[in-house]
Design a protein that fits this description.
Blueprint: E1 13-20, H1 26-41, E2 62-64, E3 67-69, E4 79-89, E5 92-102, E6 107-116, E7 121-128, H2 135-138, H3 142-155, E8 161-162, E9 165-166, E10 172-173, H4 178-189, E11 197-201, H5 208-221, E12 227-231, H6 233-243, E13 254-257, E14 269-270, H7 272-277, H8 281-294, H9 301-310, H10 325-398, H11 421-431, E15 435-436, H12 445-449, H13 454-474, H14 481-487, E16 501-502, H15 507-511, H16 513-516, E17 520-522, E18 532-534, E19 538-540, E20 549-554, E21 563-569
Helix pairs in contact: 1-3, 4-6, 5-8, 11-13
């Protein structure tokens, strides 16, 4: 059979996980794990409903020793049935275990297949269910079975792996070193990888504890299906730099990287809000995306070898006493033929759907390119408008209508147009005397420079820094920065309205420790011995997806006589805004 294997019940497979396992005695060890899991799910089975054989039968012989377990006579009780078949021939051994579960509103069959030939071993878990039943109900508890099998394999030296790569039930934290970040990026972008990867980024709002708890839950839900990596806070920026804007992951988000070569948009991202909403949401969401391809995955070569050697015995687990064997075989052959026809038809439909999706994706990319060109044109027009405004101010000043002397900055110096936030900061550090910007303040600047609005934001950052510089030179007597912007009529004054400037954070932000501590920012030791101080005043550089902000502390009336910048980057988390 193909990867879309249909078992005895005729119901399609909705869940599949398979991997290599090197443990000796794999058949009995896996059967024991299956039995323990089944009795955990259905305690009414007890210890005697399923007993594995003490040894394999002679080559070519079948073994069938299963018994049914059921609930009470209540019509609403869940009926369960355990079956087992083992067979061996030509050096190939196979054990097939089934747990059939039937309730008034749902039914499913969990199948565990173990294959060995003396050189390699495979463990294969499937879940079957009727097509008219919600998929989530069919896989109830199967993640715990897969986790038990993988944990037992790790403990027993089985080295569980898929495509030569180790798999397990725990997430892997990535340290912010080149030795870890670069190899991970190479695997994510390479074409030889067979295992899907899920990368979960540190959530600045909730902190490292909840982030790791979500990653552990996700790793167990996707055990046997994908590897889960966690990016701590210090690793996010190095990862973004190596992966690039199209393939990166933002703080709090989770992203699924499919094996093989794909366009960036096919590596699906789950927003931070969804990741936070429920610890199990990430695993459920990515699990649904993966199963559509995993259930169609071709079985290992050892399975095809076992088919040739063991024939049709795998389809004859335990025929009902009132069913004639010949009729059953004929019915199965007819069923298999129908399945093949359905499979070919499904593959043709899938190919057509993929072609349609590719066409739509290309249309989206074309539209994005047009949008980027329009954005660049808008930025050019904005820069032209700013130049004209500056020239108009100069004319008005020369005519004596402005009422104040013209200052490009405090020293009257003109500056070139900036094209990135980093360039703006470099220019400011080299020329501004009254604005101090520590290196820590630009930890998240790369996120702004990777956006399509980078040039516009860079100009806003530099204009804001020039405004703070001018205020530090001429703000005496105006009270604070807002009053200076409002009343000084200085040509470099910033906007004094609430949409562009805030001198205080909201009560809610400062009351909640997890939000207020994010406003604890670096400052000169001459201001505070600890080198940190709470900054609430900030320039609102822009709105939109990242909504960049510039936080500052006004020390113009104290020891340093300067304005100290503590943060430039995306909007910090608030009750309503999750970065």
């Amino acid at each position: 059979m193909s990867g879309a294997d249909i078992h005895r019940s005729g119901s399609p497979v909705v869940y599949r996980a398979m991997w290599n396992d090197d443990r000796p005695g794999l058949h009995e060890l896996a059967a024991r794990s299956f039995r323990n899991w089944a009795t955990w799910i259905h305690p009414q089975l007890g210890g005697g409903d399923f007993e594995p054989a003490e040894q394999h039968p002679p080559e070519g012989a079948d073994e069938r020793n299963g018994s049914a377990g059921s609930g009470s006579g209540d019509a609403d009780a869940v009926r369960v049935n355990l079956r087992r078949e083992t067979a061996a021939h030509g050096g190939v051994s196979e054990t097939l275990l089934e747990l059939e579960q039937e309730a008034p509103e749902s039914q499913s069959i969990v199948v565990l297949r173990v294959l060995t030939n003396g050189r390699e071993g495979w463990v294969w878990v499937d879940v079957q269910m009727p097509t008219d039943q919600p998929a989530a109900s069919s896989a109830s508890g199967v993640h715990e079975l897969v986790c038990a099998l993988l944990d037992d394999a790790e403990a027993g030296g089985g080295r569980p792996r898929l495509g030569g790569e180790r798999i397990g039930t725990r997430p892997i934290a990535v340290e912010p070193t080149r030795q870890q970040v670069v190899p991970l990026a190479e695997r994510l972008t390479g074409s030889s990888r067979e295992v899907p990867y899920v990368v979960i980024a540190h959530d600045y709002l909730d902190g490292p504890g909840p982030t790791m708890a979500r990653a552990r839950t996700t790793a167990r839900q996707l055990a046997g299906l994908a590897r889960v990596y966690v990016l701590p806070a210090q690793t996010i920026n190095p990862f973004q730099v190596v992966m690039g804007a199209d393939l990166g992951v933002q703080p709090g988000e989770a992203r699924l990287y499919l094996p093989g070569e794909h366009e960036p948009h096919r590596h699906r991202t789950l927003a931070a809000e969804m990741v936070r909403s429920d610890p199990t949401e990430t695993g459920r969401w990515f699990g649904r995306l993966l199963q559509s391809t995993l259930v169609a995955k071709e079985p290992p070569e050892l399975y095809r070898r076992s088919q040739q050697l063991l024939g049709e015995r795998r389809e004859l687990l335990e025929p009902s006493p009132d069913t004639d064997a010949a009729e059953r075989v004929e019915a199965l052959e007819t069923e298999v033929e129908a399945v093949w026809k359905t499979l070919y038809q499904t593959r043709e439909e899938r190919s057509a759907s993929r072609a349609e999706c590719d066409e739509l994706a290309q249309q989206i990319l074309d539209m994005q390119e047009e949008l980027e060109l329009a954005q660049l044109r808008a930025e050019e027009l904005q820069e032209t408008l700013i130049d004209k405004e500056h020239k108009m101010v100069e004319v008005l000043v020369r005519a004596g209508e402005a009422g104040v002397a013209l200052d490009i900055d405090a020293s009257g110096k003109k500056y070139p147009q900036v094209t990135s936030v980093r360039q703006a900061l470099k220019l400011a550090r080299a020329n501004l005397l009254k604005v101090e910007i520590p290196p820590e303040a630009e930890a998240r600047v790369v996120e702004l420079d990777n956006a399509i609005e980078a040039r516009s934001w860079a100009r806003s950052v530099f204009d804001g820094l020039l405004a703070l510089e001018a205020y530090a030179h001429s703000g005496v007597g105006f009270g604070d920065f807002r009053e200076w912007c409002k009343s000084s009529k200085h040509p470099r004054a910033w906007y004094a309205n609430s949409k562009k400037l805030a001198m205080r954070e909201s009560e809610e932000v400062m009351r909640r420790s997890e939000l207020s501590r994010l406003r604890d920012m670096p400052v000169s030791l001459r201001v505070r011995n600890s080198g940190r101080i709470t900054m609430e005043a900030h320039l609102k550089l822009s709105n939109g997806s990242l909504a960049p902000r510039l936080y500052f502390y006004d020390d113009t009336g104290s020891n340093t006589g300067k304005v100290h910048v503590g943060y430039i980057g995306p909007h910090l988390p608030t009750k309503r805004f999750r970065s």
